[in-house]
């Protein structure tokens, strides 16, 4: 899942750089032209993917410590 989130961030940067007409966060895009509000926006929503990546990483890294109590893991 973290790999998928990383790919979403790459797609977000690609769309921002090369396909700006689908990137509705820009002021130059007319309302309704972008993917925001569409189901496909999940594929290029990089800020949400970054948040998901860090939350999932924190959970994965601390879960082992919470289960074992071994402080050397931290």
How confident is the prediction overall: mean pLDDT?
Answer: 78
From the N-terminal CA to the C-terminal CA, the straight-line distance is 23 Å
Q: Per DSSP, what share of the residues sits in E-state strands of 2 or more residues? A: under 5%
Largest sheet: none
How many H/I helices?
Answer: 3
Helix content: 55-70%
Structural class: mainly alpha
Encode the helix/strand succession as letters.
HHH
| Beta-strand segment tally | 0
Principal-axes shape call: elongated
Task: Show unreliable segments.
Answer: none
What is the alpha-carbon Rg in Å?
17 Å
Short description:
This protein is mainly alpha-helical and 74 residues long. The protein is built from 3 helices and no strands.
Describe what this molecule looks like in 3D:
By secondary structure, the protein is mainly α. 59% of the residues lie in helices and 0% in strands. It has three helices and no strands. Helix 1 (2-18) packs antiparallel against helix 3. The longest helix is centred in the last third of the chain and has 23 residues, at 46-68.
């Amino acid at each position: 899942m973290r790999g998928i989130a990383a790919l979403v961030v790459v797609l977000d940067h690609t769309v921002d750089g090369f396909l700006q007409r689908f990137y509705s966060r820009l002021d130059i895009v007319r309302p309704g032209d972008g993917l925001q509000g569409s189901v496909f926006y999940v594929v290029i929503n990089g800020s949400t993917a970054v948040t998901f990546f860090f939350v999932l990483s924190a959970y994965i890294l601390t879960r082992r410590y919470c289960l074992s109590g071994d402080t050397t893991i931290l």
